[in-house]
Give the backbone structure.
Amino acid sequence: SNPSLLILPGDGIGPEVMAEVRRIIDWFGDKRGLAFDVSEDLVGGAAYDKHGTPLHDDTMARAQEVDAVLLGAVGGPKYDVLDFSVKPERGLLRLRKEMDLYANLRPAQCFDALADFSSLKRDVVAGLDIMIVRELTSGIYFGEPRGIIEEGNERVGINTQRYTESEIDRVARSAFELAMKRGKKLCSMEKANVMESGILWREVVTEVGKDYPEVELSHMYADAGAMQLCRWPKQFDVIVTDNLFGDLLSDAAAMLTGSLGMLPSASLGAPMANGRPKALYEPVHGSAPDIAGQGKANPIACVLSFAMALRYSFDQGAEAERLEAAVNKVLADGVRTADLLGEEGVQPVSTSGMGDAILGALDAS
Ligand code: NAI
Ligand code: MG
């Protein structure tokens, strides 16, 4: 049977950008014989409007069964008044939690045509293609004890960095698997010089590395890593790091490259019976209520999220490259949505205009 894909367009510009991805998915079915068993459902405010909950149990169950979930975005001002328990983002949080998605993948990818958008020099970012794997379900954001306590005559704020061997082992494996599908180079970042969790992190990653002899493993202190990411990011291929450092490093690295409308992401969990990891793919951006319904949204972040699904869930690395090359081609041809404008005299295309251009480039590929 065909690989299965659950599509959750969500709210705001989510459905607008997802409509373009649907056309691209159909293109791969028609032209490349790559058919998916696609189902579509509601999440976020859209699900709340229909069911009174931001994620219906049936949708959750379906997400657990499919080979990959592709999500648009959730949220919007209309839902700001809702009780915390039914807020749109709770739908997304429930998906991440129940699927136990512990590896967050954030690429920093710079298409040549957009290199001048970066605040860094063109040669530092042009052609950049690195991946940061951030541990997402443990570490200092979750560790106990935590809280604000009274001590003597003042208050103390406490958080605990805590990682078990198995938590480090599983995210390290995700990172090595990715490295195998990419440049076979992995850099692990922690602060083993000053943190016990960092010492354990380095030990466990080194141990897991013995199962991946083809991957060249290196270690770097995370502060030095931050510096190197800005100085010469092309030295990296895959970076694996903990929740806190990954939060900072992935935001910084993503912004090396330009617009929010260009950034895809993935969250992966444990391998399923068929060997594929549980997986949720989504653009980094939100529902953009300021431009929703106007056909202005850039669909590329969502398109590239699907490209990630092709590569990391469906083992279609060559087809993922085909799609990324098509995006590169339209950008090189000067096709721009409004968020990418910079050059004088360029007229922006609409969301579907960008979809048309990418489909045209795919046809020519
Ligand atoms: P946002 O990412 O929705 O928008 C920030 C700015 O970037 C806006 O000016 C927007 O127009 C622009 N932008 C974002 N995506 C774009 C695209 N594809 N093309 C062109 N321009 C784009 O973040 P914001 O405004 O903080 O949040 C809006 C809503 O989205 C809130 O309800 C928030 O909770 C939700 N949100 C949802 C996320 C998710 O579904 N994963 C992530 C972040 C926010
Ligand atoms: Mg962050």
